[in-house]
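In response to a reviewer's request, we include the raw inputs and outputs for one of the modeled complexes. The two entities were modeled together in a single run.
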Amino acid sequence: MKLKLNTIAIGAALLAACGSSDSPGPLGNVDSLVILQRVARNDMGDIFQYTSYIPGAKLIKLSPPTADGTRTVLCCDKAGAEFANIDIQAYDISFDAKQIVFAGKLSDSDHYGLFLLKLEDGSVQQLATDMGRDYVSPIFLPGDKIMFTTNGVVKNLATDTSGAAIDPMPPQHVDEYERGTTIQIGTINIDGTNEQLGPRNLSHRTAPSLASDGRVIFTQWDHLGTENSGHLMFMNTDMTELREAFGKEGTGASNSTLKAQEISPGRFVGIATARNRTINAGALVDIRLGHVSKLDNGDVVANEAMSEANASYVMLTPDVPTDNSPSANTIGRYYDAYALDAKEHPALLVSWADGPVESSVLGAANMSADFGVYLYDTATLQRHPILDDKGTWDIFPRPLQTRTAPAVTSSSIDGTLGGQAMIGAMNVYESTLHTFNPGEIYGVRVMEGFSSEEGFPRMFGTTMFEGHANLGVARVAADGSWLATVPANVPIHLQTVDNFGMSLFNEPVWFSARAGESRVCGGCHEDRAKSTIINPGITQAAAIGPTNAKGLVARANRMSAVTDLSNANLIQADGTGADKLVGMAWDKAVQPIFDAKCTSCHNGVANSMNPSYQIVNPVTGASTTYTFDLTNKPIQMLDEDGMAETWPASYFFMAGPDMEAIEKNNLMVTGTPPCKTASGTPTLQCMLPTDAHNSPAIQLLNPTKLFPQPDAAVRAFTSSPHSTVGGYAELTPTEFYKLILAADMGLNYYARENNPHSSTY
Amino acid sequence: MKNIPKLVAVALTLFATSAFAGKGGSNAAIVAAVNSHSTDAIIAEVERAEGLICSDCVQTITNLTEDNRFAVREVAAWWFAKRPGLAKVMSDQMKGDLASGTSLQVRNAADFVGAIVDYTALPALRQAMGRSLDSEAKLAIVHAVGYMAHVDGNGILVTAMGDADPAVRAAAINAWRDILGQVSVAPVEQRLTDADAKVRAAAATVMGAYGDRNAVSALEQLVVTDKDPFVRRNAAWALGQIGSRDASGALLTAVNDKSGLVRLVAKASLARLQ
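The model returned the following structure tokens for the whole complex.
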């Protein structure tokens, strides 16, 4: 203990020595720090979890901000008996430095709520949030508001044509992978009135912080199929205009970037880490969102031409792992950082813990990380200790001082949209992600996402995609523009589609918009640093009017009618009917096609039409034989204990087994795979999620033209269609489109139309 | 301890899902995480093994369904949920435990069927709720029904709302709120006069969430007379959600409540009435 005190005292001396006789040092202008002290713990969950609760947290003030400064408990020892067992998750200081808002949980049976602490008298009051939900990560916003994240869910009380509310009691999204009830962004007035919840991501949003341009930067978990990481996003303070900030398309420093805090305009310090096992801590990165420039006063900014294409980062802690491997002694990991200046090598207030800051190593040693407060010199990479109490996490150190409130940022809300939002683009061909051939895009498919919160059994199929509902295809006008009205607040993702209804390019992220918000992009992930050039006047899509993509249809009705799903001629000669195909429930939409056109040949009986392959374990000799089968028979298990049901044979053969797992486990595939790629390579996967165009089965069938009207004389591919070779009645346009939708929407088995929750038990 | 016939396990694991998100796991990694005693590490390694073809993992993760930590039991069940054939085999065993197992077995079984969202287990849960079990087991049953969020679980929750243990009653009330397509809050309204403060507080919140005007009078009573500040707070919030101007008198009184939990909530609720 004495050694520790000496160490800190030396540190304090170093701190003092950092400044020369006429330079006060980075903390010279800071009278005091506010620090959150939480009881040390090892099991926080992944970086998006928020329910960890151990009583005993407090907010303290350290004045002056040195180890021998005077500590004052700000909260909550004098707030009353109700606060005796409080844990505090995060806090923020008001612009006038007179109040603190914090997220606190008062008991094991309570939820995290929002509290206001008045520094003048130490009084604490709770804000009027939903007492059955959690509210965390609060920050002050200009205009006497507070922003937070919550597992409360936004309702849509606008009504559809029948008078039913569109979404009066929606379930909150559950992350498909880690099963947590997701947290979304919301705002509330400082007096607790006017709580508004923002549009939802299909997974979590967390750690908002305010930027000097008035926008809020936060971390969003992007999970759509193969995408599974945490990126920085921007939004206005009224929760409109979501924009990518940093980390997507492989540009980040790590799997996830969180707790971003502004250093200067366009420049942020954040934590670069893995999604889990790192106690929500990691390396420090200096993120520059645009072109970097130095001001006359020496400050470095990066707010010119901000875009992901121009973003870069500087690793401020080069030896700290950015994955979830244990950190080394003297290296440790950082929990958070706050910049004290904006020089090229900024001084940072940090929370840091030494040693192997990783769950399993700490767990095996029955220890917790010991986060303390330090002043970090990013030029010399040296930490100078300020405060480190054993047994507590000393985190989120912030100067207790006034700051300038930025302007309120908002978008105009179009009241005529009612409970829906409008999305679109000025020229869909403008894209940094894909090169489109002129004229090849027929329209933009708009799809709604949902997860198992709607009652699905924790998965939608074997391909790891979430639930999808086809809301419609917005036709692209001659000038490349398109518009659609969509349900507000729900996660949406887009695909450009061709005249056959097949996806040309799949946008691999979810986005959402508030009711009345109009989100019209320049293109299809256009260059953010350039302006999209269009002809003067309004776009053709605006002149024509937006496509109705079920914007005012109640959630319960955003699905296909049973009769429509089984109607092989739903799509008429004039092209109408395609928008009635919403969810491709495999057993109701896809299996009937196979039953009608395929299973007379492809029925699991081994012959030239039904090749067999084996998956073999060369070590044990165990093998299982699969014979091509498009019936709905469950795959039969060859075991001594009898049969066991899994997926229907048709689904198994179309989706195929997990090739990566086969390879990783050194299993062998022998025999004849049932499908071939366009280049003739045998493959076990006859359909590819989000990629009907390259799906071997779709290529073999060779769909006919669908949009704007069906035309059986025009084929998608130059090869002979399977119907010619196989001699069966050709698929109808409806049947082709169902297969295409099934593939393009993630190749799921479940959709709302066959949700097991709708049965009785 | 549960066992799955090994050959079945091998065959069934060949249907593991795509490993897009869960990558790089192994049985050795899961075992190492278990030995570390870290809940986070166990969860992380089981998640990484989401798509793993790993017959050895089956018993390892089966054992985790009996761990004394809910978070570990839950992720183990999730792993099985990604393997429908295996999940069914396990669930059938769990239903047996619900019918005749010890309280501990019932707890584990309820957590499993709830986490994999096996609706066919609802009848077994219904039956189990009528058995003589400890509170932990009954809480697990209530949580399972909450996970499934199916109206056919309502009867189980009503039974739980009459349980001797207030924790079970409160959990049932909270679960009632999130049942998809919930039809009525009448059973919850009765709990506004429960003997236990946490139960009253939970009931007040749910009545507010549903905006049930029938509860205004009872909530007004709670706001001004209940001894527990959490109850008064929740009742104040609920009155604001319901929005009946009849409540303005009670809320005006609550604006001067002695507890910091109540005052600002009451004031904000009052503003909603105006």
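As requested, we also summarize the result in words. Residues 569 and 732 of chain A are 7 Å apart (CA to CA). The longest strand of chain A covers residues 216-224.
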